[in-house]
Amino acid sequence: MTLNIGFLVFPNVQQLDLTGPYEVFASAADVRVHLLWKDLAPLRSATGLMLSPTMTLGDCPQLDLICIPGGAGVNALLNDRQVLDFVRTQAAGAQFVTSVCTGSLVLGMAGLLEGRRATSHWNAVDLLPRLGAIPTPGRVVRDGNVITAGGVTSGIDFGLTVLAELQGEAAARRVQLALEYAPAPPFDSGTPEACDADLVATVRQGMARARSEREVLLPPLRPQ
User: How many CB atoms lie within 10 A of CB 116?
Assistant: First the structure.
């Protein structure tokens, strides 16, 4: 049976949040991957890559897996009723409800992370309690049928993890080998814990504007 997997694609999406797991799923057998948005006009990602939706939200069938990637464009979705209603409707019938990076904030605003363990980009994971979620470290965090991935590159780990759930470990291993996914980064600076305070501060500063806009859009922290 063919699996229907849908990625929300939107202006200023972080393209690797999307294209990393997309490559994993699209490389598997019996999978149909949809790029979903309100219309079919090409969109510019946060880093300038042009992306073309393949199906509108209104035409989308029931998905087996829905994934919300992150990026600066997430901010515009946090109070977008059409998008949040679509995510809720799809989540009700999906086998897996998922996100990469700050896409978890959209799941939270749709009310899908209440009381669940979840993760996000390291510069946003502390915002999850505002949405009723339990922030949990990890490249991929699962709580029931909700699976969230950390920042950007973790989307590939997420894709392989979920593919193993959907089609078995052997299928995921075949895709991993086909993609030659054997990460060996040249520097040990992929997490804040691995870096000095000055480097972390510099990177945070580059994200400060999107972060401050996001904080205004999210509900306040709930009293303990």
Answer: 23
The DSSP result for 67-116, as a single string, is: EE--SGGGGGGTT-HHHHHHHHHHHHH-SEEEEETTHHHHHHHTT--TT-
- Output the pLDDT for position 222: 76
The answer to whether residue 190 sits within a structural domain is: yes
Does this model's pTM top 0.85? My answer is yes
Cross-strand pairs, 33: 5
DSSP 147: E
- Domain of residue 158: give its range: 3-217
Tally of structural domains, the chain: 1
3-class SS of residue 31: strand
Do residues 152 and 18 lie in contact, with contact meaning Cβ atoms separated by under 8 Å?
Answer: no
* Active centre residues (catalytic): 101
Question: H or E segment at 67?
Answer: strand 65-68
